[in-house]
């Protein structure tokens, strides 16, 4: 159950109550459990205007795990897609590492579903590439990983790898840029968040 504090009349009130079955996003187990990326649920809750504090009360019934992540308090934009991650390699060997697919994670942070979202890849510098793809649909607060066509650099040197999406209600999260160096024989790639 989630409670909120009303600053006008200085009392706590119940905002919403969820039963355990309403919150369960994975099968029960008697083993150690840590949720996978596909085992998270999404809840959107309107918070009253005078609410100044929230607290979560958990009443367990044969369970001892409740995982809460990515709580966002505030107005939810109607249309807000975000470029969350770009997994380009810091160093890419010309012979061994090509073609290099560039995975990207896109998230819909808005309250409305997004239909036919165009995602652009623009690589500029020593090596160049322009590509785009379309995500057919992305529900509110969902994420999708997409892969661009293979990148085949032909010259040693640095290039900017930029992934972008069209303007929406929040343009501050609509692009990410990563620097990649094509070279004869070294690969550099470290990212604990990659790839589904």
Task: Walk me through what this model shows.
This protein is mostly beta strands. The strands form 3 sheets. The chain has a 5-stranded mixed β-sheet with strand order 5-11-10-7-8, with no helix packed on it. A 3-stranded antiparallel β-sheet has the order 2-1-3, with no helix packed on it. Strands 4-6-9 form a 3-stranded antiparallel β-sheet, with no helix packed on it.
List the helices and strands and how they pair.
Blueprint: E1 2-6, E2 11-16, H1 20-23, E3 51-56, E4 81-86, E5 91-93, E6 103-108, E7 114-125, E8 129-138, E9 143-147, E10 157-164, E11 175-183
Parallel strand pairs: 5-11
Antiparallel strand pairs: 1-2, 1-3, 4-6, 6-9, 7-8, 7-10, 10-11
User: Element order, helices and strands?
Assistant: EEHEEEEEEEEE
Shape: elongated
Number of strands: 11
As a percent range, the share of strand residues is 35-45%
Query: How would a textbook summarize the main sheet?
Result: 5 strands, mixed
Query: Distance between termini?
Result: 32 Å
Give a quick set of tags describing it:
mainly beta; 2% helix; single chain; 11 strands; five-stranded mixed beta sheet; three-stranded antiparallel beta sheet; 1 helix; 196 residues; elongated
